[in-house]
Amino acid sequence: MDVVATPLWSSPPCGSPMAGTVSSGNPLFHVGRSYYRSAAKAYNMTRYVVESLKLDETVLATSMAYWHTFVDRLELRKFDEIVLSASCVFLASKVEHYKVRLNRVIALVFEISGEGDEMEGWRRMLLEMELLVCHTLGFNFQIIHPMKRIVELVPEDHTQVLECAHRLFLLSFMTPLCVRVPADEVAEALVYLAADGAGQLEPYAGKFRCDAVERREGIINVMIDALAVMRKNTSLPKVDDMIVARRKRMREQESFRPSVAHSSGGTGSLDVTPSAFLVE
User: Fold this and answer.
1) Which of 54-63, 144-153, 186-195 has the lowest mean pLDDT?
2) What pLDDT score was predicted for residue 70?
3) Of the candidates 145, 108, 147, which has an alpha carbon nearest to the alpha carbon of residue 126?
4) How far is CA 260 from CA 10, 18, 32, 274, in A?
5) What SS3 state is found at 31?
6) What is the distance in angstroms between the CA of the first residue and the CA of the last residue of the chain?
7) d(CA 279, CA 235)
8) Distance between CA 184 and CA 153 in Å, rounded?
9) Widest pairwise Cα distance in the chain
10) Chain segment 253-270, per-residue pLDDT in tens
11) Could you tell me if 28 and 181 are in contact, meaning their C-beta atoms sit under 8 angstroms apart?
12) 122 with 77: CB under 8 angstroms?
């Protein structure tokens, strides 16, 4: 992709990310709508940095896995979410063997340049947050991503399935699946959803190692919820119909709740999410 999006995010700490759960009855798959929105802002910023610095998408995936791990264990509202995201992408770039200068990350995220007190202040803040992230990870930086299993599962001539599964793989980082479910299980659920949506599920019979239907449906439910909340689609009519139906059900549920004012992470900011990167 030649065009890199300009940064579109706000820096105030967000509220509790787990309010208002949606999805299946399995506690593993309970995700709040505000969680999706906070994760989408982190994703958007992270992808901007990754593309600006011409890094591999593995850095994006690793950074978001760190972000979700941190948020899963600590309360996000206690921390500046942009500082957290910037620290995660800086750490991930080093783990994935890229030589990225911290000042360059700060310049991209906070739109400042040169040296001085402001740059030094951000440097100290990001380095302190990076250390906290390292402690939260237990200094275990290895992340296994689902994409390898996706490539193993999908035949070369199933281009539509592979492209959709790849989109879903990227979008899955707006959910906490990467820290709650094994990577291979996520991969197989994404391939199942893409193949079913493309009407090509039959060739995959017997190929899935993870045969727990309830868990697969839970993963798919989380993805459909995320796509519905973030107003994304897949270009596969069957899957997109599921998203539309889920969005309609969510609107109906909202109509029975008292009206509340949305923060900067509410529906007014949904266009900030990475739809431009993923769906044409």
Assistant:
1) 144-153
2) 94
3) 108
4) 20, 16, 16, 25
5) strand
6) 12
7) 8
8) 10
9) 61
10) 777 765 544 433 333 333
11) yes
12) no
Residues 189-213: pLDDT tens digits?
A: 999 999 999 999 999 988 999 888 9
Query: Looking at this protein, which amino acid is placed at residue 109?
Result: V
- In one-letter notation, the amino acid at residue 180 is R
* pTM, rounded to two decimals: 0.78
CB 4 within 8 A of CB 48: yes
- Which token pair is 251? 């609107």
C-alpha span between 133 and 101 (Å, rounded): 18
What is the gyration radius of the CA atoms in the chain, in angstroms?
A: 19
d(CA 212, CA 221): 14
Residue type, 244: V
Question: Where do we find the tokens 């700060």?
Answer: 106
Determine if residue 23 is left, alpha or beta; phi over 0 gives left, psi from -120 to 50 gives alpha, anything else beta: left
Angle, helices 213-229 vs 183-197, to 10°: value is 70
The alpha carbon torsion through 187, 178, 210, 274 (nearest 10 deg) reads: -30
CA 243/CA 237 separation, integer angstroms: 10
Domains of the chain: 33-137 (1.10.472.10), 146-254 (no CATH)
Q: How far apart are CA 250 and CA 257, in angstroms?
A: 11
Which residue has tokens 């899935």? 208
Q: Which residues are 22's β-sheet partners?
A: 31
Cα–Cα distances in angstroms (integers) from residue 269 to residues 78, 185, 205, 230, 264, in the given order? 21, 31, 41, 10, 6
Helix 159-171 × helix 213-229 angle, to 10°: 70
Q: Which amino acid is at 206?
A: G
**Closest C-alpha to 74, from 8, 13, 163:** 13
